[in-house]
Amino acid sequence: MCASAKDEEALCPTKEVNMEPQKKKARDRKFKIVPILEGDVCKEEIPLIEYWVLSVPCLTAIGKLLPLLPPMPTEAGHLKRIKDGRILVQPSTVPLQDNFITSLSSQLGTELSLSSVLVPEVKPCTRRQFQWAKERWPTAFHPNKDIEKLLAGSFFDEDEHEKIIGFFLEAEKIGGDGSGCIIVDLKGKVVAKSAERPVTLGHAVMCAVSDLCEAHRIGNSDVLQYLGTGFDVFLTEEPCAMCAMALVHFRVGRVFFGKRKLRGGALESSWRIQEEKRLNHQYKVFRIEEL
């Protein structure tokens, strides 16, 4: 005898439907790689400093005038001294002699006028800064191709972008619900990976570095400093100061991290260890942001 639909409903408990949104599959997730650059690099403008400037009506007198002027400060090596018949003398914070203008005018046999002008205090480090600076006063500029690509968002080609995201997703998988770390050598091979561990100093970075050293049976701290030279490190979250400093000693080349750690993050949020000029090694830092 066949059971009715009502009987079946009574016999079979109703299945619960999971209404929680499903986690995106890896192939459906989209990411962008954000470079963490120094604040000075990201600015369009650079500091200005006031200089005394001489206006020379007779351009042929400029050649005779230059030897009579004090030398430019060493920190002003980026500045061109002459612009449109005007010559930089020295910073306005340095007082001029009382008879400075009259003495020069009599030596040259031509009337000179003195005024002040704001000029770039430091050498521009990006093309955008150079465009802004040269409108104030001519200045030297030597473009850094890597920085220009980072600012333009064209540092990684499609193939490298895909590889980077692949390693990051692997770090996510290793970390599970916690943090994960993957270390990749110069040949693109994963040489160490670890999740955080329930032990003292069991941070994912420290564990991965320790595992790699153990694999090479290295106990000498001097050798350790060069074991990771130029390697890439992929982290699910921004490292703390201890882990970030360990990567400095490890001499890694680039660090990619996911979530920011607003309290204690040492690469962007609370501190930027990679910008510490007192350290004898700096690495490039990128944040992987899911769209």
From TrEMBL:
PROSITE patterns according to UniProt: CYT_DCMP_DEAMINASES_2 (PS51747)
Which UniProt keywords are present, listed alphabetically? tRNA processing
The domain of life for this entry's organism is Eukaryota
InterPro entries listed in its UniProt record: CMP_dCMP_dom, Cytidine_deaminase-like
A cellular-component GO term for this protein: nucleus
Q: Which GO terms describe its biological process?
A: tRNA processing
Does tRNA processing appear among the keywords?
yes
Lipoprotein among keywords:
no
CDD domains given in the database record? nucleoside_deaminase (cd01285)
Q: Which residues are in the CMP/dCMP-type deaminase domain?
A: 159-270
Which Pfam families is this protein grouped with? dCMP_cyt_deam_1 (PF00383)
The UniProt GO MF terms for this protein read:
tRNA-specific adenosine-34 deaminase activity
**What family is this protein classified in?**
Belongs to the cytidine and deoxycytidylate deaminase family. ADAT3 subfamily.
Name listed for the protein in its UniProt record: CMP/dCMP-type deaminase domain-containing protein
Where does this protein come from, organism-wise?
Enterobius vermicularis
